[in-house]
Amino acid sequence: MNMNDTLISEPLEPQEMSTPVNRPVEDAGAQSAKVEEGKTVGKPFADDPKFKLRNVEVFYGQERAIKNVSLDIGRNEVIAFIGPSGCGKSTFLRCLNRMNDSIDICRVKGQLMLDDEDIYHSKKDVVELRARVGMVFQKPNPFPKSIYDNVAYGPRIHGLANRKSELDDIVEDSLRKAGLWNEAKDRLHSIATGMSGGQQQRLCIARAIAVSPEVVLMDEPCSALDPIATAKVEELISELSESYTIIIVTHSMQQAARVSSRTAYFHLGHLVEVNETSKVFTSPEHELTESYITGRFG
Amino acid sequence: MIDPKKQAEIVHKSLKKRYRKEKRFRAYGILAITIALASLIVLFADIINKGHTGFLKTTITLDVEMNAETMYLEDPTDPDAVRMADFVEPLIQSLSEILPEATEEDRGKLRGLINPYASSQLRDELVANPDWMGTTQTITFLAHSNVDVYNKHKGNEAYSIKLSEEQQQYVDKLRDKGVIETSFNDVFFTSGDSRDPARAGVLGAIVGSLLVMFVTLVLSFPIGVAAAIYLEEFAPRNRITDFIEVNINNLAAVPSIIFGLLGLAVFINLFGMPRSVPFVGGLVLTLMTLPTIIISSRAAIKSVPPSIREAAEGVGASKMQVVLHHVLPLAMPGMLTGSIIGMAQALGETAPLLLIGMVAFIVEIPEGFFDAATVLPVQVFLWAGSPELAFIERASAAIMVLLAFLLSMNALAIWLRKRLERRW
Ligand SMILES: Nc1ncnc2c1ncn2[C@@H]1O[C@H](COP(=O)(O)OP(=O)(O)O)[C@@H](O)[C@H]1O
Ligand SMILES: [Mg+2]
Questions:
Q1: What is chain A written as a DSSP string?
Q2: Alpha-carbon Rg of chain B, whole angstroms?
Q3: Given an 8 Å threshold on Cβ–Cβ distance, is B313 in contact with A99?
Q4: Complex-level ipTM
Q5: Do B315 and A8 touch (CB under 8 A)?
Q6: Which residue among A60, A220, A270 has the greatest number of ligand 1 atoms within 8 angstroms of its CB, and so is best to mutate?
């Protein structure tokens, strides 16, 4: 074949261009290890959990993205979800505040209890659920409004403040907790999208905690940030862990090790192993977990 | 494996080929734009060349002697006496004083220089000022439209055929003496249509267009935006909504005259609404613009980044709050741009309005949505079809007015977009 033609007419397949993280997992040295459906090694259950999740299955149309996962998430703990790309971490996380509702083809089965209330109960109001379970996304997504309005939005729609001064207090408090007050206090009314990426992400965290949720879900909150901004956000997560239950999805095992107390390893929709973070990273019980953390596949 | 040296050579050769392709492609683009621009310039130059004289009028300023004997008028405050009086004679007399070479037989030719309505103007002014009786007043009248075109197109045979040899000489002489003057045509912007080209104006058509546009905007924008929001945000995806979607897309391509037929059949024949009125015109154009507005509004809603939606849902905004607080403000510039472009299309529309009778000869300036009216493009159509050169020239001038409206609407669309556009 003519070399020139190849260069011009056939762009590289997108999969081949991205990082090895996207490599199909089956081919990557894990042939020997098998996951048994519904079997999770380690300690998936806890006493008096915040979230009690049993036999959760998630379908995108016909495709089963989460396969019979059972897990407890304790009060005021930071739990990290790790695993190769496409293994269903985001899908599982988004079940916890029903963000999957807006995807038409997505169906969730199983029992998902928040403080003994079924969050998928037909009478359960998703607005109320999201006020209790806040979320921070992968890419910083502040509203194209002022910094103040970003933080004040949640309290406003939920009617959490009766007076302007109360709202001001909530905004200041949330920005302080998010470690953004000193940088933002002089520009509260300038547009939020004008800030740096790291500041925007901390603003999103401030926006999430402004409605005083009990749980904060974070889906790879640092993957779009530089190392310095990442360090700041990690520090913030550690501080927030005192008052909130935090569930964080991360690609970086160092990050999981730094911020979380428990770690859950997902593989192709299965929950393979859950244990204390230190245990998972020093002596993983499952072969697949070991392969993953030793970097045998991304 | 290709050896690296050879590889470099091959790439180098292919580079040249690639750059040649790129250059050729750029040349095609520049050529296309040049052709488009040239046609546009030719079009504009032609319109301006033919039409700019429509913005000029020719006047005759005469010293009129208000003589009771020549006018057969004793008392200008008596309506009956005024009705019987002769207001042409004093004008002719005044003219023949300036043109002594005109004999008694040439009176008709002199009369043909003055606008047929000049006598009514004199009558009205005298009635308003009865103390003018017995004095001589300097009054400016419109010239006859034949004089008007001859005066404005000096030396062009085609424009002088309506005047006799002598009349042409008279006009030349009057102009040298400063009796005949050319000035800005304020009449064109302050009056409605007329059988006399010199007194015909576009104000009636402009007001008609504004009334029609108002009805169209007030109906089509809210309905279109609401339909787009429903279809995009709330409608379930099923056969019925698919069917609706296909139909909206098809409606956008339906020839506008079909909407005129529909308006005639439904609004006028079925509902018994009056003909020729801006309200019905607005209804018909609403039907025509709705698909455009719905399609562009849906595109604007689709282009709102999903991350903003997620952010709002994440803090617990309900569906309605997500739409009202976030999607709508972000989609607004696109919706407005689409609507203004739809309105601009409607402004230039003639065919459907012909069918609902907005093509009548209407002198009065319409005062409401149920007064008989016409619109700018129909006015152009009417004048352009007239055999009189003076009307053709006014048609060109009206086209320029219409273009000015369209350009300012598009400028408004761009300004709004720049103004409301937000970055994220
Ligand atoms: N909106 C969607 N529609 C269809 N399939 C999806 C959707 N989102 C995720 N998936 C599929 O679900 C699986 C898990 O995806 P995801 O939860 O995003 O993985 P992770 O976050 O671990 O990288 C993948 O196979 C992906 O293709
Ligand atoms: Mg993910």
A1: --HHHHHHH-PPPHHHHS-GGGS-GGGSS-SS--PPTT--EE----SS-SEEEEEEEEEETTEEEEEEEEEEE-TT-EEEEE-STTSSHHHHHHHTTTGGGGSTTEEEEEEEEETTEETT-TT--HHHHHHHEEEE-SS----SSBHHHHHHHHHHHHT--SSHHHHHHHHHHHHHHTT-HHHHGGGTTSBGGGS-HHHHHHHHHHHHHTT--SEEEEESTTTTS-HHHHHHHHHHHHHHTTTSEEEEE-S-HHHHHHH-SEEEEEETTEEEEEEEHHHHHHS-SSHHHHHHHTTS--
A2: 31
A3: yes
A4: 0.83
A5: no
A6: A60
Q: Answer whether A221 touches B (CB < 8 Å).
A: no
Give the whole-angstrom CA distance, residue B365 versus residue B371. 9
CATH of region B203-420 = 1.10.3720.10
Query: CATH homologous superfamily for A3-293?
Result: P-loop containing nucleotide triphosphate hydrolases (3.40.50.300)
* CA B254 – CA B345 distance, rounded (Å): 14
- Which ligand neighbours the alpha carbon of A92 most closely? 1
> Please, are residues B126 and B132 in contact by the beta-carbon 8 Å criterion?
yes
C-alpha closest to that of A151 among A104, A196, A224, A203: A203
Inter-chain CB pairs, A–B, below 8 Å: 79
* Cα B398 to Cα B140, B225, B243, distances in angstroms: 25, 33, 42
| Residue A164 pLDDT > 90 | yes
A66: left (phi over 0), alpha (psi -120 to 50) or beta: beta
Looking at residues B281-287, what average pLDDT do you find?
Answer: 95
Closest CA in chain A for residue B317: A127
The 10 Å Cβ neighbour count of residue B258 is 15
Residue contact A211–B315, C-beta within 8 A: yes
A12 band by pLDDT with thresholds 50, 70 and 90: very low
Which pTM was predicted?
0.81
Q: Summarize pLDDT for A142-160 with one digit per residue, the tens.
A: 999 999 999 999 999 999 9
What's the pLDDT score for residue B45?
92
pLDDT tens sequence across B311-347: 999 999 999 999 999 999 999 989 998 999 899 999 9
* DSSP sequence for B155-168: T-GGGTTTS-HHHH
Question: How far apart are alpha carbons A289 and A25 in whole angstroms?
Answer: 12
| Top mutation candidate among A91, A106, A220, A270 for ligand 1, by most atoms within 8 Å of CB | A91
B424 in contact with A, Cβ within 8 Å: yes
Residue B20 near chain A (CB below 8 Å): no
Domain boundaries, chain B: 57-183, 203-420
User: Which among A3, A128, A207 has the least Cβ separation from residue B10?
Assistant: A3
How far apart CA A97 and CA A208 sit, in angstroms, is 13
Q: Which ligand is nearest to the CA of A94?
A: 1
Quickly tell me which residue has 């506008």 as its tokens: B256
What number of H helices and E strands is found in chain B?
A: 19, 3
What phi, psi does B180 have (nearest 5°)?
-95, 125
Q: In whole angstroms, give the CA distance from residue A72 to residue A77.
A: 11
Longest dimension (CA), chain B: 116
The answer to whether the beta carbons of residues B73 and B85 sit under 8 Å apart is: yes
At A298, the pLDDT band (50, 70, 90 cuts) reads low
Q: Is A170 an 8 Å CB contact of chain B? A: no
Q: Do A154 and B326 touch (CB under 8 A)?
A: no
Q: Is B313 on the interface with A (CB under 8 A)?
A: yes
Per-domain residue ranges of chain A: 3-293
